[in-house]
């Protein structure tokens, strides 16, 4: 794998990862996102419906938590998770946890990390973890790490532990990797911990960077525990310690404004669980990322922004379905009565399968009648919208229009 | 042979007939394109084929599917669908659509429904309002939906019911047919099919056939079956009907979808079928195969790395194993969609194979091969199927 940076603008890195995957021919543009999956499948989608989405990322994210129960099955299968899930050609990254389901705190120890599979909690030692990875054979893997610093107040002691444990796990896993023929082509992603303690963060970054890892995961920045100021300052401090020629990943960050903030602080790779969460609450991403609109499109975009801005504001006495409290200003809630006879697409100008073929009224109907197709169509739209957003970030960096894009996105962040 | 125009919106061409049995292969020309029969029509109740897109469904070769007047009449309602350019426009399905009348759902789904000469009175489960579905209202809704084939509102009674109610329902269905014909405001664009009733009583069925065949309708359905009656009675009613129904008009056997039933009823002269079974069983984790069904969500498939059916060329079998589907089924809707795709492919492939064998004059051999694969052992052949097939000169070895 090789990372080539074409430019750095206001801290944002624009570049390309090349020589990816088992055949070494895949590439990924940075900044970019991964394709989010559960149990190895993009939620609600089959291969055919996935193919109908434009801009699907080259790198697929698997989560150990949704795959851990398949350990025995995969050991017998032998050919690796990519083939098992029907994605033999994709580049695969295996993370520990699934960002859409936060882990309960307090279950890690010096020798174990707990992950929550469908059958419940499983304690992973480095040995068990690597055994699982040998059965999976991913292209990239997040090293076993202790990121249990995101709930409530984290003491210095706990922050220090997260760094110590994660470094210990890293060394042990790297050793085990050396002895594993199945994992010779796999790249270890070193995990940077340290909670909200600057010293620990710097120590973690420097020490992790000394190991032969192929990339870095900035962990522990998920959730609401850290104040935004602190979070962003720490992020910048961490990436300043990292080599330029290796990708920086982050988990748990999905909202467009937060994505931009992280990119400005040297992060390259994001997850795409956010469009999934939007789908699950019956919503469609509607925010504009078109920093170059023609006047007509600008009017439509403005309407779109107004739609999103009005979420839940209309007090309809008969409204039996309430929007999820997590709903953001970047999306519209299709179950609202006003969409019942709205025959326009989810988002004007969107070229996704749903917007090209169906109306807001139809999706509204599917949601009201609890039909499975609602999630399929929303997932297709939301993924495509999100992938297009990342495309526009790269365009903006290339065209020196980052400020316009930022202004547009932050205007919609309310 | 040339096509017979059965109505302004339908013509049928008998392409081939099995020399032995009553099986035939036809071309059915409808407003939204040709349909090759024998045909299985998947059921897309609420304007969606459950988790699969219109494009996927079309890609599997489906050219006609069902929507339900009762469900769509409730939500989102006929006015909205009319605004959306009919059900075709609303769900963006450009192939053919058949809608039932709403009669069956009302009786089977809803408590406290009351049937009078006027229509069916019931309480809406969505807002508690009292609703009266008359033949006129049913046709009005179906006209708004714009389906290529509409079904008359019939007086539906359970197939296991006996006594005077059965006869009453049969005669009422005839009267309701006339009311439906009168109410159809778009006979040039939408075909209204009659539904033969009469329970399991040959005399009543014959009477119904005689009467309904005097009406000018482009097609006929055999209704009131597939409701738990003995198979032995079932097939005799089917064959009695096809003996009398006109050759040049399509015969639609409602509610039939199990593979064996399809094969036998094609032999008995039926052209069109619908059933929720294949799509429903997919959502419950079962894959249909030529030798029965595989409950992939069962433990036994956890390490079975073969596709559902090695000889199936559907997108699911092309890419995924039983083991993966098993793993996925536990938590992901995608598993249901993958099985739905396969089961629809199975049904459509089955009908295609049946049709090809009729066209190529080898239907007899097809039936024998089919039964052998499905039942692995002649002692296992269902007696009713053996007898039904024998009645049309198809003997299994």
Automatic annotation (TrEMBL), chain A:
Cofactor(s) needed by this chain: Zn(2+)
UniProt entry tagged with the keyword Coiled coil: no
Gene Ontology molecular function, alphabetical: metal ion binding; protein heterodimerization activity; protein homodimerization activity; tRNA binding; tRNA-guanosine(34) queuine transglycosylase activity
Pfam families: TGT
Keyword Oxidoreductase belongs to the record: no
GO cellular component: cytoplasmic side of mitochondrial outer membrane; tRNA-guanine transglycosylase complex
Organism the protein comes from: Chelonoidis abingdonii
Record's keyword terms, sorted: Cytoplasm, Membrane, Metal-binding, Mitochondrion, Mitochondrion outer membrane, tRNA processing, Zinc
Limits of the tRNA-guanine(15) transglycosylase-like domain: 12-412
Subcellular localization, as worded in the UniProt entry: Cytoplasm; Mitochondrion outer membrane
Source species, domain of life: Eukaryota
Alphabetical GO biological process terms: tRNA wobble guanine modification
Source taxonomy: Eukaryota, Metazoa, Chordata, Craniata, Vertebrata
Quaternary structure annotation from Swiss-Prot or TrEMBL: Heterodimer of a catalytic subunit QTRT1 and an accessory subunit QTRT2.
Protein name: Queuine tRNA-ribosyltransferase accessory subunit 2
Function, in words: Non-catalytic subunit of the queuine tRNA-ribosyltransferase (TGT) that catalyzes the base-exchange of a guanine (G) residue with queuine (Q) at position 34 (anticodon wobble position) in tRNAs with GU(N) anticodons (tRNA-Asp, -Asn, -His and -Tyr), resulting in the hypermodified nucleoside queuosine (7-(((4,5-cis-dihydroxy-2-cyclopenten-1-yl)amino)methyl)-7-deazaguanosine).
InterPro entries documented for this protein: QTRTD1, Queuine_tRNA-ribosyltrfase, TGT-like_sf, tRNA_ribo_trans-like
Cofactor notes: Binds 1 zinc ion per subunit.
TrEMBL record, chain B:
Membrane-topology annotation of the record: Peripheral membrane protein
Top-level EC class as recorded in UniProt: transferase
Any one cellular-component term (Gene Ontology): cytosol
Compartments where found: Cytoplasm; Mitochondrion outer membrane
Residues annotated as catalytic: 100, 274
Region described as RNA binding: spans on this chain: 255-261, 279-283
GO molecular-function term, one example from the UniProt record: metal ion binding
Binding sites annotated in the UniProt record for Zn(2+): 312, 314, 317, 342
Catalytic activity: guanosine(34) in tRNA + queuine = queuosine(34) in tRNA + guanine
Pfam families: TGT (PF01702)
Keywords assigned by UniProt, alphabetized: Cytoplasm, Glycosyltransferase, Membrane, Metal-binding, Mitochondrion, Mitochondrion outer membrane, Transferase, tRNA processing, Zinc
A biological-process GO annotation: tRNA modification
Cofactor names: Zn(2+)
tRNA-guanine(15) transglycosylase-like domain residues: 21-375
Entries under InterPro entries matching the protein: TGT (IPR004803), TGT-like_sf (IPR036511), tRNA_ribo_trans-like (IPR002616)
Subunit structure, interactors included: Heterodimer of a catalytic subunit QTRT1 and an accessory subunit QTRT2.
Function description: Catalytic subunit of the queuine tRNA-ribosyltransferase (TGT) that catalyzes the base-exchange of a guanine (G) residue with queuine (Q) at position 34 (anticodon wobble position) in tRNAs with GU(N) anticodons (tRNA-Asp, -Asn, -His and -Tyr), resulting in the hypermodified nucleoside queuosine (7-(((4,5-cis-dihydroxy-2-cyclopenten-1-yl)amino)methyl)-7-deazaguanosine). Catalysis occurs through a double-displacement mechanism. The nucleophile active site attacks the C1' of nucleotide 34 to detach the guanine base from the RNA, forming a covalent enzyme-RNA intermediate.
This protein's name: Queuine tRNA-ribosyltransferase catalytic subunit 1
Organism per entry: Chelonoidis abingdonii (Abingdon island giant tortoise)
């Amino acid at each position: 794998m090789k990372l080539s940076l074409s430019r750095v603008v206001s801290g944002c890195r624009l570049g390309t990862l090349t020589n990816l995957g088992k055949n070494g021919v895949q590439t990924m543009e940075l900044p970019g996102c991964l394709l989010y999956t559960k149990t190895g499948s993009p939620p609600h989608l089959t291969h055919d419906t996935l193919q109908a989405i434009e801009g699907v990322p080259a790198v697929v994210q698997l989560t150990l938590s949704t795959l851990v129960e398949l350990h025995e099955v995969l050991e017998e299968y032998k050919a690796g998770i990519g083939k098992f899930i029907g994605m033999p050609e994709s580049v695969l990254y295996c993370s520990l946890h699934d960002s859409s389901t936060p882990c309960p705190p307090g279950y890690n120890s010096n020798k174990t990390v707990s992950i929550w599979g469908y059958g419940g909690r499983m304690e992973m030692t480095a040995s068990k973890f690597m055994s699982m990875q040998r059965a999976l054979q991913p292209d990239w893997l997040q090293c076993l790490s202790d990121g249990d610093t995101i709930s409530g107040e984290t003491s210095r002691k706990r922050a220090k532990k997260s760094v110590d444990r994660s470094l210990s796990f890293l060394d042990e896993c790297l050793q085990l990797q050396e002895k594993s023929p199945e994992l010779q082509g796999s790249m270890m992603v070193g995990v940077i911990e340290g909670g909200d303690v600057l010293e620990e963060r710097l120590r973690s970054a420097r020490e992790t960077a000394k190991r032969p890892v192929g990339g870095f995961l900035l962990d522990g920045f998920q959730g609401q525990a850290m104040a935004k100021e602190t979070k962003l300052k720490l992020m910048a401090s961490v990436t300043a310690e990292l080599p330029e020629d290796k990708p920086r990943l982050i988990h748990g960050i999905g909202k467009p404004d937060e994505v931009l903030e992280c990119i400005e602080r040297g992060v390259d790779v994001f997850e795409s669980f956010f469009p999934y969460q939007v789908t699950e609450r019956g919503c469609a991403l509607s925010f504009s990322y078109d920093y170059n609109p023609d006047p007509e499109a600008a009017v439509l975009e403005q309407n779109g922004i107004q739609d999103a801005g009005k979420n839940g504001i209309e007090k309809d006495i008969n409204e039996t379905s309430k929007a999820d409290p997590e709903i953001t200003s970047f999306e519209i809630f299709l179950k609202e009565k006003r969409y019942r006879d709205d025959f326009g697409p989810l988002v004007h100008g969107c070229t996704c399968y749903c917007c090209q073929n169906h109306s807001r009224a139809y999706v509204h109907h599917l949601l009201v009648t609890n039909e499975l197709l609602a999630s399929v169509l929303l997932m297709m739209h939301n993924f495509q919208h999100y992938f297009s957003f990342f495309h526009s970030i790269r365009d903006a960096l290339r065209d020196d229009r980052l400020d316009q894009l930022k202004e547009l996105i932050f205007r919609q962040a309310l | 042979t040339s096509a017979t125009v059965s109505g302004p919106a339908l013509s049928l061409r008998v392409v081939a007939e099995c020399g032995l049995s009553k099986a035939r292969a036809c071309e059915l020309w409808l407003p939204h394109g040709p349909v090759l029969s024998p045909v299985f029509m998947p059921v897309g109740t609420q304007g969606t084929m459950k988790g699969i897109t219109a494009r996927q469904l079309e890609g599997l070769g489906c050219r006609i599917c069902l929507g339900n007047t009762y469900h769509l009449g409730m939500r989102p309602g006929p006015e909205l669908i009319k605004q959306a350019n009919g059900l075709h426009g609303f769900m963006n399905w450009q192939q053919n659509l058949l809608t039932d009348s709403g009669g069956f759902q009302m009786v089977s789904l809803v408590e406290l429904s009351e049937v009078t000469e006027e229509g069916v009175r019931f309480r809406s489960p969505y807002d508690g309002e009292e609703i009266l579905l008359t033949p006129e209202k049913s046709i009005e809704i179906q006209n708004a939906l714009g389906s290529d084939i509409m079904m008359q509102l019939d007086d539906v009674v359970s197939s296991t019911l006996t006594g005077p109610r059965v006869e009453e329902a049969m005669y009422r269905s005839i009267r309701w047919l006339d009311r439906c014909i009168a109410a159809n405001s778009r006979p040039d664009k939408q075909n209204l099919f009659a539904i033969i009733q009469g329970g399991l009583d040959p005399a009543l069925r014959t009477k119904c056939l005689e009467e309904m065949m005097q009406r000018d309708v482009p097609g006929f359905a055999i209704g009131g079956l597939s409701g738990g009656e003995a198979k032995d009675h079932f097939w005799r009613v089917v064959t009695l009907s096809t003996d009398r129904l006109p050759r040049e008009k399509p015969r639609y056997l409602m509610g039939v979808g199990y593979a064996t039933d399809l094969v036998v009823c094609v032999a008995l002269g039926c052209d069109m079928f619908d059933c929720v079974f294949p799509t429903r069983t997919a959502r419950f984790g079962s894959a249909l195969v030529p030798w029965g069904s595989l409950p992939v969500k069962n433990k036994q498939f956890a390490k079975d790395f073969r596709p559902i059916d090695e000889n199936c060329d559907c997108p699911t079998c092309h890419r995924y194993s039983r083991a993966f589907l098993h793993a996925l089924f536990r938590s992901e809707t995608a598993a249901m969609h993958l099985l739905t795709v396969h089961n629809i492919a199975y049904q459509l492939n089955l009908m295609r194979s049946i049709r090809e064998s009729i066209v190529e004059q080898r239907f007899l051999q097809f039936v024998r091969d089919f039964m052998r694969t499905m039942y692995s052992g002649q002692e296992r052949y269902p007696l009713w199927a053996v007898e039904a097939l024998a009645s049309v000169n198809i003997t299994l070895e």
